């Protein structure tokens, strides 16, 4: 079968089950886009910036558990995707960037060719940590398979596939590509038995689950119930155990006192990120069973008595198969009291309460780097996996709105809401146009106080209240939204907010709900 390089890419994506790709066409990717024309199974979402496209692919990946695909042309377009790729790397999200690159003849020659830059592939691979440049059409199906295998059998981090622009245009005889059946890595049977023996003898077992357990929610809950282990969740693990489950302990950062009391900590899908380690201070697990698909994180922070390298879901299934039901010495009252958080007055806590009342149990919430979102990570109840998406570690501003577009594209039958501040919103606000073009009903909660609030507070704390670079002159956000042909409303009370949210959830276009904090009265 005679195929161009562009057709080879699309055929391979189709074989691996890709149904949506995000991007902007360019003169270097015309053949690739021509192969997408009229495709019966792969839909293209045209964005307004490549940063938005890659954030959308990230949101799609986190909400669905599938690989998110972004397409860019050479040079500035590929560079525009760098920030989302860094975000995807930090949060272990499977984002595949397919980019055109310079030809072999022009790469590194400094001849002034269009979109010329030094070592594009080296730069992209440095951020992603993995990738491949292909120089022949015949190598494309294998390269796409390699990308999907890497993201689905190892720690799911981004991958870059670069093809010179002339390779997209070239032709070769290819067979129809086939996706492989990928078995997740299994922990060693002997180590599973050793872990089960430790669990049997533990009187106060404690569990911790991170982002790597998002696909193993049922198994984490089953293990906890089987052995009576309270479960704490990292920021990326929110939703793995429902917030109203009797064994849900709360955020991992609050677990320090429990770690000092437990005789066995069972950690799944977490690298023990810096916020957790710092908040635990001197608390260290006396005995640790650590299950993770990435062998590099086991023993990095705390020595593991048993390190299980493997997939969270199949690993926990195998572990539970060797365990009988048992009671622990933790009392239900202890767990319930640990979940209690002090009530805070003010606009932001009340907004979060109103939001939770308005949403379905399985609604997806995307957040940004802003005060409302920081509180949401601690206080917003999350009930199902893959429903709270946040830029926790890399901390990229502008994540929320495009990630919500990606999540809504992945989950068209679920409510999706974006939370953001006035500063971060304007990083990627042009993607309102994408959401409108895709006809996405998408409430965007925009807290506006005309400042970079978190930085201003830090200047109050660390710089004696000397403020520089943090006060903003914002547009009229309601008029701004309406200029894109979408809904916009300003609210100054919880009653107005709840009414606006109900209307936005019923709308078939985006709605910007500006929460004007200087005048807000809960």
Can you walk through the features of this model?
The protein is built from 22 helices and 20 strands. With 522 residues, it is of the alpha/beta class. The protein has three domains: 2-173, Rossmann fold (3-Layer(aba) Sandwich), CATH 3.40.50.970; 189-339, TPP-binding domain (Rossmann fold); 347-519, Rossmann fold (3-Layer(aba) Sandwich). Helix 3 packs across helix 17 and helix 15 runs parallel beside helix 22 (494-506). The N and C termini lie far apart (65 Å). 51% of the residues are buried.
What structural class should be given to the helix and strand makeup? alpha/beta
| CATH architecture heading of the largest domain | 3-Layer(aba) Sandwich
Helix share bin: 25-40%
- Cα gyration radius (Å): 24 Å
End-to-end distance: 65 Å
CATH topology of the largest domain: Rossmann fold
Uncertain runs are none
Which class of the largest domain in CATH terms? Alpha Beta
Name the descriptors:
Rossmann fold, single chain, globular, six-stranded parallel sheet, 522 residues, alpha/beta
Quick structural summary:
With 522 residues, the chain is of the alpha/beta class. The chain is 39% helix and 17% strand. The protein has three domains: 2-173, Thiamin diphosphate (ThDP)-binding fold, Pyr/PP domains (Rossmann fold, 3-Layer(aba) Sandwich), CATH 3.40.50; 189-339, 3-Layer(aba) Sandwich (Rossmann fold), CATH 3.40.50.1220; 347-519, Thiamin diphosphate (ThDP)-binding fold, Pyr/PP domains (Rossmann fold).
